[in-house]
Amino acid sequence: MLLWLAEYLQQYYSAFGVFQYLTLRGILGALTALVISFVVGPRMIDWLTHLKVGQAVRDDGPQTHLAKTGTPTMGGALILVAIAISTLLWSDLGNRQMWVVILTTLAFGLVGWVDDYKKVALRDPKGLASRWKYFWQSVIGLVAAFTIFYLRESDAEITLLVPIFKELSLNLGWFFVPFAYFVIVGSSNAVNLTDGLDGLAILPCVLIAGALAVFAYVTGNIKFADYLGFAFLHGNGELVVFCSALMGAGLGFLWFNTHPAMVFMGDVGALALGAALGVLAILVRQELVLAIMGGVFVIETLSVMIQVASFKMTGRRVFRMAPLHHHYELKGWPEQRVVVRFWIITVILVLVGLATLKIR
Predict the structure, then answer these.
(1) Cis geometry, peptide bond prior to residue 42 (ω within 30 degrees of 0)
(2) Measured distance CA(225)–CA(336) in Å, rounded
């Protein structure tokens, strides 16, 4: 929106041409989202507290969590508002990739909002029935996957790249649609499963978004793409603004979500952020790198699958409690130790993911 204004004003004052630079708009996008979070956050927390939309805590989990009962949830709406406003202000509204990622993110956020609302406002402990939650996730995921496939400008946009191996790639053809659907829905649910401790899920999302911004900038710049051996994907550079907005909004939310949390993001935030990372990875053609950088999300998800499968087949549990972060809490680790160590692991994995830019 502001880009159009800057383009108009540039004919009268050439200095407005500086807003054509993605790096500047990315920085401004992050700062805008951060300021929105700081300004709106306290008011949203007060409003949620007034509405008494507090988190219900399971009594079969770590006993330290019982003190969190009543903490306002649905705070993920703050993240989505900050991302949406910042992205619309600083990005090119004519960019197709930007609209795919922002609409998919908001749509998954809507599914999460309905689930949270039923749980905390209508006092329905089950929230949105699992089958309906998965149904709507699937519908949105398939629509996003088909849209990306249908609007592609080249086969490079549906080609699976294998990290490290420069010449190893696979044109997915129509298989791209179910593959992209799996990435989007799987990433969404993985982040949702990880969101169980103060700040545990949000900082990895911020770190991964930052790394994906680098991939977006590289694949959207014909010189850098050629130098690093990537296919040039026209328009991808604009995703830098969305990634930056996500980083700013995430850091702003972490200000209120750090231990002891003043607000939880709820499904409205977790489902949306996970889907956003999935769509971004698809658009920059780094789905396998996303699995590396999001290793914490992958391990958390696998711990749940292993726990359920083991209990159903043998009647015994592999972990004291799933997802994995609860297992370490029940072993006696303080919550802050679990969170910070998972953050450190994510930093390492993100660096490994970024290293694949050059090691090819």
Answers:
(1) no
(2) 40
* Distances from the Cα of 16 to the Cα of 86, 161, 186, 239, 245, angstroms: 19, 38, 42, 21, 21
Q: How far apart are the first and last CA of the chain?
A: 38
- Given this model, what pLDDT does residue 35 score? 97
According to the per-residue pLDDT averaged within each range, which of 240-244, 311-315, 320-324 is highest? 240-244
Contact 176, 149 (CB under 8 A): yes
List the structure tokens of 222: 């014909």
The token pair that represents 189 in the structure block: 């649910």
268 token code pair? 């409205």
pLDDT in tens, 239-254: 999 999 999 999 999 9
Q: In terms of Cα–Cα distance, which of 108, 167, 168, 165 is closest to 136?
A: 108
Query: 177 is written with which tokens?
Result: 């649609």
Q: Which residue has the tokens 């977790």?
A: 270
Q: Using an 8 Å Cβ cutoff, are 265 and 257 in contact? A: yes
Q: What is the pLDDT of residues 32-69, one digit of tens each?
A: 999 999 999 999 988 888 776 655 555 555 555 545 66
Compute the distance between CA of residue 133 and CA of residue 117 in angstroms, rounded to an integer.
Answer: 13
The rounded distance, in Å, linking the Cα atoms of 9 and 5 is 6
**Tokens 């043998």, residue located:** 314
- Per-residue HEC secondary structure of 286-323 comes to CHHHHHHHCHHHHHHHHHHHHHHHHHHHHCCCCCCCCC
Q: Nearest Cα to 35, choosing from 99, 98, 78? A: 78
Taking the C-alpha atoms of residue 274 and residue 214, their distance in angstroms, rounded to an integer, is 18
pTM greater than 0.70: yes
Which tokens hold the place of 41? 């956050």
* List of E strands, the chain: 159-161, 169-171
Average pLDDT over residues 339-351: 97
